[in-house]
Records
---
Amino acid sequence: MPKLRVGIADIVDARPLAWGFVKGHYSDLFAPIVKPLPLIGRLLAQGGLDAGLVPTVDAARDPDLMALPELCVAFPGEARSLLLVSSSPLAELRRVYLGRSARSAAAVARIVLAEGFGLEPEYLETDTTPLPGAAPEPGRPRLERREAALLIGGTALKLALGGGGRAGGREVLDLGSAWRELTGWPLVAGLWVVRPEASLPDLAFYFKSSLRYGMASLSAIAREAAAELGLDSEELARFLHENVGYLLRDEEHRGLEELIRRAARLGLVPEGAAIRFLPADSG
């Protein structure tokens, strides 16, 4: 039987979910393939992958994909790795830069600004988001006045864990906290999805096993990520333990449904879009 090709996004938040696959567990059944987050969705649509981690809104946009039950990337409150960073007070915003890879975070930013702040700035999708400050990172343009940028993953964590807030002329909005305040529910940012022809008895078992191994290895994951990002490993371990959730329970289901409903209201997903879940006893 051919191995199932699993698309893995190399972002810190999601590493515990895929840790078992990355470390070679069930290598006779699965072939882990690390790709940038936007490419995973395209490869799934083209048949180049059998399963993969995708933003929640992408799972809702593609009716052919089936989400695995019980697992997700969620933020019960403060996210720290999903930030909207502005060079001016949010009330003055006229333009927001959204990265192409962060589709769930981009949808949340638009929902929060529209419904929480009554703002309708211009939105631009870019491969490299600008940063505020006199000396931005190499290769990044400077964020101008009345502009904001969506930061995710390691870039956001370096700001959140390394200190920031309003420092350096920045105003920072944590999207996990803002979403919770607006809706009362957790923010479900990502889901494991599979193509309909992907077949393996008790498929979900292997993904849950990968997460169990990841949760038992948080210190190792944090040390590896800290070395890459230049951050403190204990801070990263606390982030993974306290800020990110990986189980799709009743509260997360409510947050997921709320995200899809509000995204549809703004035209960010088709009207009537919904997540289709693989039956718990299938695979």
---
Amino acid sequence: MICEDFYKSIGLSRPQPLDKSDRIKFNRFVFQNYFLPKMEKCKEMGHYIQLSESDLKFLKSFCDKKVKAKNQEWKSFDNKNRAKREMTGAGIEYAVLKYFNKENEFDDSIVSDSNKRNHPDLLPVGILCDVKGSSMNNVPLVFKRRRTYTCNIGNYMGHRYRCANVIGVFNQDFVWLLGIASPRILEECVDDNLIMMTNNTSKTGFYGIDQLEEIPSNWNDFKIKCSEKSLVL
């Protein structure tokens, strides 16, 4: 119903392609009507993390180093937009760990070859889960195709799987942890018209905020929940 409500409001049917101005309106419609109410609930439930000045300094240093490494790996690298995306992603991942008082386990290693780090964000700390998020007034982008990983570390070594994702929103020094999305929800609750760059053929926009599982308050319960929601193939 989320998407249908918007298409009806502009007199179009889904999945008719939208022009850029309507894509912007669609993105804001979904964020304001579905993400913001969920963010208010996050405050009430304590799934709302404030990053300290030292947290932000640490994350900025990490992101600057990562952008520099990526600039060496890829020519014509978009440093400005990449720096913002890296800070959003790293901020949400760090906030997940901070929620469980495990921020010291944040993986701040830098690699020059992206293929050497082709695993979900939380796998190094034993959680079968990736992290996806967005900045304010934007929906998260997720992969269109079913993405599988063959694990090369930890208890899941040698297994191929599709993992759950923690969905969050980052805004300067605040992070809202909205919940956990299963692979099925990540595939079904998406719409290409939510993405601004029509030439991006690998990703799409995620809107399934009402389908998320709440994040447990206990680390072990979180680990179990993410494992249950992921698919080992």
